[in-house]
Amino acid sequence: YAEHEATYTFDGVCLEGELPRNQDRLVREWAELHHDDLERCWERATSDEDLGTIEPLP
Predict the structure, then answer these.
(1) Where are the domains of the chain?
(2) In the predicted model, is pLDDT for residue 1 greater than 90?
């Protein structure tokens, strides 16, 4: 986000970097809502399959 960068787990835990408070909250909320989708995409990625898409927050 702008000059900020961060890496998150599928559970919304920030591993490194930093985002502004509001953007961090949005990433965590999105990751919680789409945890299963993220895991499916990861499985597809490790099998060289098309990842598909994951819906953004409303």
Answers:
(1) 5-46
(2) no
